[in-house]
């Protein structure tokens, strides 16, 4: 699918601009897929019914009760298969969630990781517990409580932790030393450069030295630490992330290959083509055509 529409729509855009958060109970009818594209917000959905999520290059079938996380950096569309579909939704901007980012384990959550499974099937007990969180959020949000935004963040955190507990223990990385904290910071800064959404705002941090300078550490220390924790070089990780963004832009925008090359930090299109062929084994046009 090609991205075709800017998100959010006018009403939600106004709400998110003013506050950065919205929670609601929803009842929707059977429908064809919505417009496919990247939303400028995060979504946590408690889905009750039968639906499909066209999530980047995957189709995720949610038949039953599911908790679903949509990342603002991944394009998606929803398709309702039930005659009547119900559930809860919580949408919020990156600015709204920022106060929670001090918690390192959130960086391992399905809300922030692009490649993790975004859908979790719920049993009756989990459904009751999570529905209770959403009901409390909705009730609290209608009050004049001065600190209700902080309360909403707390419930978002609780929902995320419920999802984290559903994942196998071996998927967790415990931040127990300085090396891992540095790598987490490096990966966080890297990810914050994406998605690329404007031709006038190209990639700013391109090399290991750029990241080391921002972290106020020597580039050799960054390279050694990244290799120790991830098993990959800093250069390889940067190349992988730039390649992933390049594939997304090739598939989901109508930008020229030269424009994509420029936004990703390549002075000339042929430099980008050589880099892309080396990392993927294909020329950029392959992904434009598939």
Description of the structure:
The protein has 290 residues and is an alpha+beta fold. It folds into two domains: 10-171, Regulatory protein AraC (Jelly Rolls), CATH 2.60.120; 178-289, Orthogonal Bundle (Arc Repressor Mutant, subunit A), CATH 1.10.10. Helices cover 44% and strands 18% of the residues. Strands 1, 2, 3, 4, 5 and 6 form a six-stranded antiparallel beta sheet that branches. A hairpin with a 2-residue loop joins β2 and β3 (58-70). Mean pLDDT is 85; it is low at 1-6 and 169-176.
Summarize the structure.
The protein is an alpha+beta fold and 290 residues long. Helices cover 44% and strands 18% of the residues.
How many helices? The count is 11
Largest sheet: 6 strands, antiparallel
CATH topology of the largest domain: Jelly Rolls
The assigned CATH architecture of the largest domain is Sandwich
Keywords:
six-stranded antiparallel β-sheet; alpha+beta; 44% helix; Arc Repressor Mutant, subunit A; 290 residues; Jelly Rolls; single chain
Q: What order do the helices and strands come in, and which of them pair?
A:
Layout lengths: L9 H9 L2 E9 L12 E14 L2 E13 L5 E5 L3 E9 L1 H4 L21 E3 L2 H18 L6 H19 L11 H15 L15 H8 L3 H12 L3 H19 L4 H7 L5 H12 L3 H6 L1
Antiparallel strand pairs: 1-5, 2-3, 2-4, 2-5, 3-6
């Amino acid at each position: 699918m090609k991205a075709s529409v800017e998100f959010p729509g006018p009403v939600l855009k106004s709400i998110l601009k003013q506050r950065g958060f919205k929670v609601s109970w929803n009842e929707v009818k059977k429908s064809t897929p919505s417009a496919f594209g990247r939303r400028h917000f995060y979504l946590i959905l408690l889905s009750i019914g039968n639906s499909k999520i066209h999530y980047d290059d995957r189709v995720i079938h949610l038949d039953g009760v599911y908790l679903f996380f949509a990342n603002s950096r991944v394009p998606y569309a929803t398709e309702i298969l039930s005659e009547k579909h119900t559930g809860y939704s919580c949408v919020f901007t990156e600015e709204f969630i920022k106060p929670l980012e001090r918690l390192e384990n959130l960086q391992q959550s399905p809300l922030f990781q692009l490649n993790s499974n975004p859908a979790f099937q719920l049993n009756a007990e989990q459904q009751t517990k999570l529905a209770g969180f959403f009901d409390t959020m909705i009730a609290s949000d209608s009050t004049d409580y001065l600190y209700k935004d902080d309360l909403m963040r707390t419930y978002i955190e609780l929902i995320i932790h419920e999802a984290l507990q559903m994942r196998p223990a071996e998927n967790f990385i415990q931040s127990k030393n300085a090396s891992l904290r540095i790598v987490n910071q490096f990966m966080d800064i890297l990810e914050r450069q994406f998605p690329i959404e404007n031709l006038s705002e190209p990639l700013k941090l391109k090399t290991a030295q750029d990241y080391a300078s921002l972290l106020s550490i020597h580039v050799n220390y960054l390279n050694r630490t990244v290799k120790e924790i991830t098993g990959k070089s800093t250069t390889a990780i940067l190349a992988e992330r730039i390649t992933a963004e390049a594939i997304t832009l090739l598939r989901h925008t109508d930008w020229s290959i030269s424009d994509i090359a420029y936004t990703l930090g390549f002075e000339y299109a042929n430099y980008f083509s050589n880099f892309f062929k080396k990392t993927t084994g294909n020329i950029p046009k392959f992904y434009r055509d598939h």
